[in-house]
Every structure is written in structure tokens, then in C-alpha cells.
Amino acid sequence: MDRFLILTLYSRPGCHLCEDMKALIERVRRTIPDTVRVTEVDVSADPELERRYGQEIPVLEMNGKKVAKYRVKEEDLRRMLGATE
Q1: What is the 3-state secondary structure (H, E, C) of 29-58?
Q2: Exposed/middle/buried for residue 39 (C-beta within 10 Å: 0-12, 13-18, 19+)
Q3: Tens-place pLDDT, residues 34-75
Q4: Backbone angles phi, psi at 17, to 5 degrees
């Protein structure tokens, strides 16, 4: 693959669902080639993001498109990333 997949995780401190999704992303990312870049964005640090997402976090975007909210299954994330075990 010539280009990177960009994952953006919108979260906030103290959010257990956010921590779960972050751990899942990291676990999957470690098993695939270095083609995925992950950025975590704290919505509580930006009033506009706080207004947009509120309590509807975590939100996961891939290349700018929302692909998951609240939870994502490992097999679904692997499929989205084109990863296999």
C-alpha cells in the first residue's frame, strides 16, 4: 500500500469506552504493516468539538469519514483496515 490510513479517535479523559477503543486500535495496529497513523483528539479541549460530539464518544474516523461510535469489534476494525491475523 502506497498511502497511509489515517485514524482519528475523538475522546475525552476519564471515558472508559474511549480507553477501550484506544486499546483495541493499538492492539490491531501492532499486528499490521506500518500503514496506519493514529491521532487522538480530546474533545473537551475544543468547544466546537465538545458541541459536536458531546457525550457521543468515542468516535473513530478513517481518512476523515466516521466509521464507528461508542464501540467497534476487533474483526470489524481489521476488516476496515484490510488486516488479517
Answers
A1: HCCCCCCEEEEEEEHHHCHHHHHHHCCCCC
A2: exposed
A3: 888 999 999 999 999 999 998 899 999 999 999 999 999 999
A4: -65, -35
